[in-house]
Amino acid sequence: MTLRPSLRTWLLRGLTLAFFAAMAVFGVRYARTIQWQDVGRALAATPTHVLAAAVALAAASHATYSSFDLLGRAYTGHRLRVAQVLRVTFTSYAFNLNLGSLVGGIALRLRLYARLGLSYLTITRVVGLSLVTNWLGYLVLAGLVFSLAPPQPPPSWALSDLGLRVLGPALLVLAVTYVAVCLIGSRRRLRFRRYVIRLPSPGITIAQLALSCANWTLMGALMYTLLRGQIPYAQVLGVLLVAAIAGVIAHVPAGLGVLEAVFVALLSHRLPETQLLAALLAYRAVYYLGPLGLATVLYLAQEVQPAHVRRGALPTP
Predict the structure, then answer these.
(1) Model-level pTM?
(2) Which residue of 26, 230, 275, 298 lies most exposed, with the fewest beta carbons within 10 A?
(3) Residues with Cβ < 8 Å from 1, sequence gap 6 or more?
């Protein structure tokens, strides 16, 4: 069935209005969950040099993640400018962290890329590669940390220290399998029923592994810095990796409460709870809220740009 042009126009306008309404609702709800006074006190109590180092690490992590979609650019062959791709990925990632993957990682990225002229098939391939890139590094680092130096879960947790040590090698096997298939795959394509997946080239695969590991390492370094080195880096990274997957399972925007609960449960025997929570609030301010403010400005600026200015270059059909 083909929609009449007028009906299609009104349908697109309705979907656009619904998208903005959903963004507003999510944003207001998220803002109301933040204890802004506590965040301010945590930042004020953080030494200036520690805060400066944390901001630098957060910027490096966001820049690293933003480069994920440059791999998608090479993978799909679209011709958007590098600056356009970085802006879209940074904006989407900031909204993803704060409002959840459905809003930031999928819906917003779909809208931004579509307004730049990419087809929905190309966008799907770019987003899919980015998701694989992100979790590839997670599999490698979590596999190594859980195998060699797993965090100590409290007795009430279903997953024990032994469970993490068993899980670690399994995660590494998954990562190695993906890399091996991409590196030695002769046909470069996988078929699943009527679906065909083109494998990334060896160069893109190695870049996926390097960038993703670098990003998770930077996130761990950020938390380690805010804890002022009072807990070994490997333990901080391990707890962060546990919190990341716990946040995904809980389906809570920004992992609200999940991040704090995991860190307090696993590290409260090493540091007073007040110090942990202060560092976590500073982490949210530096890694979540600050980038969200900048991403909001970038998003609104792109929305008001005329189409010919916004696109600048025609992507590959």
Answers:
(1) 0.81
(2) 230
(3) none
